Amino acid sequence: MRTFGSLLVRGLIIGLFAGLLAGTFAYVTGEPHVDAAIAIEEAGAAHTHDHGDGAETAAEEEPLVSRDGQKAGLFLATTLYGIALGGIFAVAFTLLRRKLRTERDPYAALGLAAAGFVGIVVVPFLKYPPNPPAVGDPDTITRRTVTYLLTLVIGLLAVWAGVAASRWAARYGDVARLAGGVVAFLVTIVIAYQILPSINEVPGSFPATLLWQFRFASLGTQATLWLLLGFGYAAAVDHRLSRQKVVAA
Protein backbone atom coordinates (compact mmCIF):
# COMPACT_ATOMS: atom_id res chain seq x y z
CA MET A 1 0.00 0.00 0.00
CA ARG A 2 1.39 3.37 -1.01
CA THR A 3 0.90 6.22 1.43
CA PHE A 4 -0.76 9.47 0.44
CA GLY A 5 2.52 11.27 1.02
CA SER A 6 4.38 9.13 -1.49
CA LEU A 7 1.61 9.55 -4.08
CA LEU A 8 1.63 13.31 -3.56
CA VAL A 9 5.41 13.57 -3.91
CA ARG A 10 5.31 11.56 -7.10
CA GLY A 11 2.60 13.83 -8.47
CA LEU A 12 4.59 16.95 -7.65
CA ILE A 13 7.77 15.60 -9.26
CA ILE A 14 5.96 14.43 -12.39
CA GLY A 15 4.15 17.77 -12.58
CA LEU A 16 7.46 19.61 -12.38
CA PHE A 17 8.94 17.78 -15.37
CA ALA A 18 5.66 17.97 -17.29
CA GLY A 19 5.57 21.73 -16.71
CA LEU A 20 9.13 22.18 -17.92
CA LEU A 21 8.51 20.20 -21.10
CA ALA A 22 5.19 21.98 -21.70
CA GLY A 23 7.04 25.29 -21.32
CA THR A 24 9.56 24.16 -23.89
CA PHE A 25 6.76 23.28 -26.28
CA ALA A 26 5.10 26.66 -25.70
CA TYR A 27 8.38 28.49 -26.23
CA VAL A 28 9.09 26.75 -29.54
CA THR A 29 5.59 26.75 -31.02
CA GLY A 30 3.81 29.65 -29.33
CA GLU A 31 6.26 32.49 -28.71
CA PRO A 32 6.93 33.21 -32.41
CA HIS A 33 3.20 33.78 -32.89
CA VAL A 34 3.09 36.08 -29.86
CA ASP A 35 5.96 38.12 -31.32
CA ALA A 36 4.12 38.34 -34.64
CA ALA A 37 0.91 39.50 -32.92
CA ILE A 38 2.81 42.16 -30.98
CA ALA A 39 4.46 43.35 -34.18
CA ILE A 40 1.03 43.75 -35.79
CA GLU A 41 -0.23 45.70 -32.77
CA GLU A 42 2.81 47.99 -32.79
CA ALA A 43 2.48 48.57 -36.55
CA GLY A 44 -1.16 49.55 -36.09
CA ALA A 45 -0.28 51.91 -33.25
CA ALA A 46 2.47 53.52 -35.32
CA HIS A 47 0.08 53.97 -38.25
CA THR A 48 -2.48 55.65 -35.99
CA HIS A 49 0.17 57.94 -34.54
CA ASP A 50 1.47 58.94 -37.99
CA HIS A 51 -2.01 59.99 -39.07
CA GLY A 52 -2.57 62.02 -35.95
CA ASP A 53 -5.56 60.02 -34.74
CA GLY A 54 -6.41 60.59 -31.08
CA ALA A 55 -5.78 63.56 -28.87
CA GLU A 56 -3.01 62.00 -26.85
CA THR A 57 0.45 61.97 -28.43
CA ALA A 58 2.45 61.14 -25.34
CA ALA A 59 5.14 58.53 -25.68
CA GLU A 60 4.00 54.98 -25.14
CA GLU A 61 4.80 53.51 -21.79
CA GLU A 62 7.43 50.85 -21.69
CA PRO A 63 6.11 47.41 -20.68
CA LEU A 64 6.70 46.45 -17.07
CA VAL A 65 8.40 43.23 -18.22
CA SER A 66 10.49 42.98 -21.38
CA ARG A 67 9.83 40.29 -23.97
CA ASP A 68 12.99 38.47 -22.88
CA GLY A 69 11.72 38.54 -19.32
CA GLN A 70 8.32 37.29 -20.42
CA LYS A 71 9.88 34.40 -22.32
CA ALA A 72 11.96 33.43 -19.29
CA GLY A 73 8.89 33.75 -17.09
CA LEU A 74 7.06 31.34 -19.38
CA PHE A 75 9.11 28.42 -18.05
CA LEU A 76 8.56 29.54 -14.47
CA ALA A 77 4.80 29.81 -15.03
CA THR A 78 4.42 26.42 -16.72
CA THR A 79 6.64 24.75 -14.12
CA LEU A 80 4.68 26.16 -11.19
CA TYR A 81 1.43 25.29 -12.94
CA GLY A 82 2.70 21.76 -13.58
CA ILE A 83 3.70 21.28 -9.94
CA ALA A 84 0.34 22.54 -8.69
CA LEU A 85 -1.53 20.40 -11.21
CA GLY A 86 0.55 17.36 -10.29
CA GLY A 87 -0.35 17.82 -6.63
CA ILE A 88 -4.03 18.23 -7.42
CA PHE A 89 -3.90 15.21 -9.69
CA ALA A 90 -2.36 13.08 -6.93
CA VAL A 91 -5.07 14.18 -4.48
CA ALA A 92 -7.82 13.45 -7.01
CA PHE A 93 -6.30 10.04 -7.78
CA THR A 94 -6.19 9.17 -4.08
CA LEU A 95 -9.79 10.22 -3.48
CA LEU A 96 -11.31 8.76 -6.65
CA ARG A 97 -9.25 5.60 -7.13
CA ARG A 98 -11.85 3.31 -5.59
CA LYS A 99 -14.61 4.86 -7.67
CA LEU A 100 -12.71 4.41 -10.93
CA ARG A 101 -13.82 1.03 -12.19
CA THR A 102 -10.52 -0.17 -13.56
CA GLU A 103 -8.51 -3.17 -12.52
CA ARG A 104 -5.10 -1.48 -12.51
CA ASP A 105 -3.82 1.81 -11.18
CA PRO A 106 -2.12 2.90 -14.45
CA TYR A 107 -5.44 2.66 -16.30
CA ALA A 108 -7.07 4.70 -13.55
CA ALA A 109 -4.39 7.37 -13.83
CA LEU A 110 -4.70 7.55 -17.62
CA GLY A 111 -8.49 7.74 -17.42
CA LEU A 112 -8.33 10.50 -14.83
CA ALA A 113 -5.85 12.46 -16.97
CA ALA A 114 -8.05 12.09 -20.05
CA ALA A 115 -11.12 13.26 -18.14
CA GLY A 116 -9.20 16.22 -16.72
CA PHE A 117 -7.90 17.24 -20.13
CA VAL A 118 -11.35 17.13 -21.70
CA GLY A 119 -13.10 18.95 -18.86
CA ILE A 120 -10.43 21.50 -17.96
CA VAL A 121 -8.90 22.18 -21.38
CA VAL A 122 -11.02 21.05 -24.34
CA VAL A 123 -14.43 22.28 -23.17
CA PRO A 124 -13.28 25.84 -22.35
CA PHE A 125 -11.13 25.91 -25.51
CA LEU A 126 -14.08 25.20 -27.79
CA LYS A 127 -16.16 28.00 -26.27
CA TYR A 128 -13.48 30.58 -25.51
CA PRO A 129 -10.32 29.79 -27.51
CA PRO A 130 -7.29 31.79 -26.32
CA ASN A 131 -6.08 34.87 -28.15
CA PRO A 132 -2.55 36.31 -28.39
CA PRO A 133 -1.71 38.83 -25.64
CA ALA A 134 -1.85 41.71 -28.12
CA VAL A 135 -5.47 40.90 -29.04
CA GLY A 136 -8.44 41.85 -26.89
CA ASP A 137 -9.86 44.70 -24.86
CA PRO A 138 -8.10 45.15 -21.47
CA ASP A 139 -11.36 46.44 -19.97
CA THR A 140 -13.01 43.03 -20.40
CA ILE A 141 -10.30 40.95 -18.71
CA THR A 142 -12.41 40.37 -15.60
CA ARG A 143 -15.44 39.32 -17.62
CA ARG A 144 -13.41 36.98 -19.79
CA THR A 145 -11.72 35.43 -16.74
CA VAL A 146 -15.01 34.79 -14.95
CA THR A 147 -16.67 33.23 -17.99
CA TYR A 148 -13.62 31.05 -18.64
CA LEU A 149 -13.57 29.75 -15.07
CA LEU A 150 -17.30 29.12 -15.26
CA THR A 151 -16.79 27.13 -18.45
CA LEU A 152 -14.05 25.13 -16.73
CA VAL A 153 -16.42 24.18 -13.91
CA ILE A 154 -19.10 23.26 -16.45
CA GLY A 155 -16.57 21.09 -18.27
CA LEU A 156 -15.89 19.09 -15.13
CA LEU A 157 -19.62 18.79 -14.45
CA ALA A 158 -20.14 17.55 -18.01
CA VAL A 159 -17.49 14.87 -17.51
CA TRP A 160 -19.17 13.83 -14.25
CA ALA A 161 -22.56 13.71 -15.97
CA GLY A 162 -21.12 11.56 -18.75
CA VAL A 163 -19.55 9.11 -16.29
CA ALA A 164 -22.72 8.91 -14.19
CA ALA A 165 -24.93 8.32 -17.24
CA SER A 166 -22.50 5.73 -18.57
CA ARG A 167 -22.62 3.75 -15.35
CA TRP A 168 -26.41 3.95 -15.22
CA ALA A 169 -26.75 2.73 -18.81
CA ALA A 170 -24.22 -0.09 -18.33
CA ARG A 171 -27.07 -2.40 -17.27
CA TYR A 172 -28.34 -2.32 -20.86
CA GLY A 173 -25.05 -3.31 -22.46
CA ASP A 174 -21.78 -1.83 -23.65
CA VAL A 175 -23.32 0.11 -26.54
CA ALA A 176 -25.87 1.74 -24.25
CA ARG A 177 -23.13 2.53 -21.77
CA LEU A 178 -21.05 4.34 -24.37
CA ALA A 179 -24.03 6.10 -25.93
CA GLY A 180 -25.39 7.21 -22.55
CA GLY A 181 -22.09 8.74 -21.49
CA VAL A 182 -21.55 10.58 -24.77
CA VAL A 183 -25.11 11.91 -24.92
CA ALA A 184 -25.08 13.15 -21.33
CA PHE A 185 -21.74 14.87 -21.86
CA LEU A 186 -22.78 16.54 -25.12
CA VAL A 187 -26.19 17.65 -23.84
CA THR A 188 -24.58 19.33 -20.83
CA ILE A 189 -22.04 21.11 -23.02
CA VAL A 190 -24.54 22.25 -25.64
CA ILE A 191 -26.90 23.70 -23.04
CA ALA A 192 -24.04 25.48 -21.29
CA TYR A 193 -22.68 26.88 -24.55
CA GLN A 194 -26.11 28.29 -25.40
CA ILE A 195 -26.42 30.01 -22.02
CA LEU A 196 -22.91 31.42 -21.76
CA PRO A 197 -22.26 34.74 -23.55
CA SER A 198 -20.23 34.88 -26.74
CA ILE A 199 -17.01 36.90 -26.59
CA ASN A 200 -15.17 37.78 -29.77
CA GLU A 201 -12.76 40.70 -29.54
CA VAL A 202 -10.46 39.73 -32.41
CA PRO A 203 -10.31 42.56 -35.00
CA GLY A 204 -11.43 41.60 -38.47
CA SER A 205 -8.07 42.74 -39.83
CA PHE A 206 -6.08 40.33 -37.65
CA PRO A 207 -4.66 37.42 -39.72
CA ALA A 208 -6.81 34.34 -39.14
CA THR A 209 -3.90 32.00 -39.84
CA LEU A 210 -1.76 33.59 -37.14
CA LEU A 211 -4.68 33.55 -34.71
CA TRP A 212 -5.33 29.84 -35.10
CA GLN A 213 -1.64 28.97 -35.10
CA PHE A 214 -1.41 30.59 -31.67
CA ARG A 215 -4.55 28.86 -30.47
CA PHE A 216 -3.39 25.42 -31.57
CA ALA A 217 0.02 26.07 -30.00
CA SER A 218 -1.76 26.86 -26.72
CA LEU A 219 -3.85 23.69 -27.01
CA GLY A 220 -0.71 21.70 -27.82
CA THR A 221 1.00 23.06 -24.71
CA GLN A 222 -1.88 21.88 -22.53
CA ALA A 223 -1.99 18.54 -24.32
CA THR A 224 1.73 18.06 -23.71
CA LEU A 225 1.31 18.82 -20.03
CA TRP A 226 -1.63 16.47 -19.51
CA LEU A 227 -0.13 13.72 -21.67
CA LEU A 228 3.10 13.69 -19.70
CA LEU A 229 1.24 13.97 -16.41
CA GLY A 230 -1.05 11.06 -17.25
CA PHE A 231 1.58 8.68 -18.55
CA GLY A 232 4.13 9.75 -15.96
CA TYR A 233 1.75 9.14 -13.08
CA ALA A 234 0.58 5.87 -14.64
CA ALA A 235 4.19 4.67 -14.63
CA ALA A 236 4.69 5.92 -11.07
CA VAL A 237 1.78 3.87 -9.71
CA ASP A 238 2.42 0.76 -11.79
CA HIS A 239 2.96 -2.08 -9.33
CA ARG A 240 4.79 -4.15 -11.93
CA LEU A 241 7.50 -1.53 -12.31
CA SER A 242 7.90 -1.37 -8.55
CA ARG A 243 8.31 -5.14 -8.32
CA GLN A 244 10.90 -5.09 -11.11
CA LYS A 245 12.95 -2.50 -9.20
CA VAL A 246 12.83 -4.65 -6.07
CA VAL A 247 13.97 -7.74 -7.97
CA ALA A 248 16.76 -5.81 -9.68
CA ALA A 249 17.97 -4.54 -6.32
TrEMBL record:
Q: Where are the transmembrane segments?
A: 7-28, 72-95, 107-126, 146-166, 178-196, 216-236
Q: By its UniProt entry, which InterPro entries does this protein fall under? A: CbtA_put (IPR012666)
Known Pfam families for this protein?
Answer: CbtA
Q: Which residues form a coiled coil?
A: none
Sorted UniProt keywords: Membrane, Transmembrane, Transmembrane helix
The protein's name is: CbtA family protein
Question: Which organism's genome codes for this protein?
Answer: Kribbella pittospori
Q: Which taxonomic lineage is given here?
A: Bacteria, Bacillati, Actinomycetota, Actinomycetes, Propionibacteriales
